[in-house]
Write a structure and sequence with these properties.
Layout (H helix, E strand, L loop, with lengths): L2 H13 L16 H15 L7 H4 L14 H32 L13 E7 L5 H19 L7 E8 L6 H14 L5 E3 L3 E3 L6 H10 L5 E7 L9 H5 L7 H4 L5 E5 L3 E6 L6 H9 L4
Parallel strand pairs: 1-2, 1-5, 2-3, 2-4, 5-7
Antiparallel strand pairs: 6-7
The chain binds S-adenosylmethionine.
Length: about 290
């Protein structure tokens, strides 16, 4: 096995261990970082009189729709029901893209996607699920290449989150801050988040996104469970920000992605609402 393959295999094994039985399907699991962040956020909700009402209001048969929220109890319920599956679904789409990119490189590039500076444009961000999932994946990548003896290189990540629902801003900020503390600042530094509250794709929103993107950064549009609610086909939906994934988005299934030299779009659609469907999606041994 080449070293490059060994690195990739270690990465996949860390995110989705194959278990003792080689023929059984892989099960995706939270990294320790992501588990800590999720648990800490659910604890914050339980310490808040309004947010803790989610236990009383919702059950597995009666879930809140994963959209706009009226109060913090709905945000907490959405976190409880959707966050775990949405993180895995997005990481799975992102890692496929990372592996495809790396397999074209010949040798390991210690920078994931070859980029020392990455801007994440998370549209329909909610509590920041896609941004958290990608940063956690980048951290797993740097951990693994470090273990294989490659010099740790600093990557800066600048999240631009587009989300009109202001109830989600607090939990999203807390989780991104927690993640910033848990990743090694010398290898990944999370820059101050740009918040865009104008709804996508209104001109004001597009203008704010484009203004916040720094020159020379790899732009990754991370769109998780949102694109299908934008009118028009995927191509029209992504055209305002010039995302290269436009042609792929038109045939978006569970996940779809495209990448060019300086821009990437990773899209995870088809909301996974029921436990059975989630399990099927998460154990699909596609990687
Ligand atoms: C299904 S949730 C997905 C949240 C998160 N990306 C995830 O995968 O868990 C869709 C999100 O899009 C937000 N949203 C609705 N209309 C929007 C718009 N026009 N522009 C940006 N976000 C919007 C909703 O408030 C909601 O948080």
């Amino acid at each position: 096995m080449t070293e490059s393959n060994a690195v990739l295999e270690t990465l996949v094994e860390r995110l989705a261990p194959s278990g003792d039985d080689p023929v059984s399907e892989r099960t995706w699991q939270f990294s320790e970082r992501m588990a800590a962040i999720y648990q800490q956020q659910m604890k914050h909700f339980d310490e808040d009189a309004e947010a803790r009402q989610w236990h009383r209001l919702y059950s597995t048969e009666h879930m809140p729709p994963p959209d706009d929220t009226a109060n913090m109890a709905e945000v907490a319920a959405q976190m409880a029901f959707y966050f775990p599956t949405h993180v895995f679904k997005f990481q799975k789409a992102a890692i496929q893209q990372l592996l495809e990119w790396q397999s074209r490189q010949g040798q390991i590039n210690p920078y994931p996607l070859g980029a020392p500076s990455i801007t994440l444009v998370d549209i329909g961000a909610g509590v920041g699920t896609a941004s958290l999932a990608v940063i956690d994946l980048l951290a797993a990548w740097t951990d693994v290449v470090g273990e294989f003896g490659y010099k740790q290189l600093g990557i800066s990540v600048h999240p631009i989150v587009v989300e009109p629902d202001t109830n989600k801003q607090g939990p999203r900020g807390q989780m991104l801050n927690s993640l910033a503390r848990l990743v090694d600042r010398h290898t990944i530094s999370i820059e101050p988040v740009t918040e865009v509250f104008a709804p996508y794709p209104e001109p004001e929103c597009i203008e704010q996104i484009l203004r916040a993107i720094p020159g020379g950064s790899l732009v990754m549009c991370c769109i998780s469970n949102f694109l299908s609610s934008v009118p028009g086909d995927g191509e029209q939906a992504l055209a305002p920000i010039g995302a290269q994934a436009a042609s792929h988005a038109t045939r978006t299934t569970e996940h779809s992605a495209a990448m060019s030299a300086n821009q990437a779009a990773i899209i995870a659609e088809k909301a996974v609402r029921c436990a059975e469907a989630s399990r099927q999606l998460l154990t699909d041994p596609a990687v």
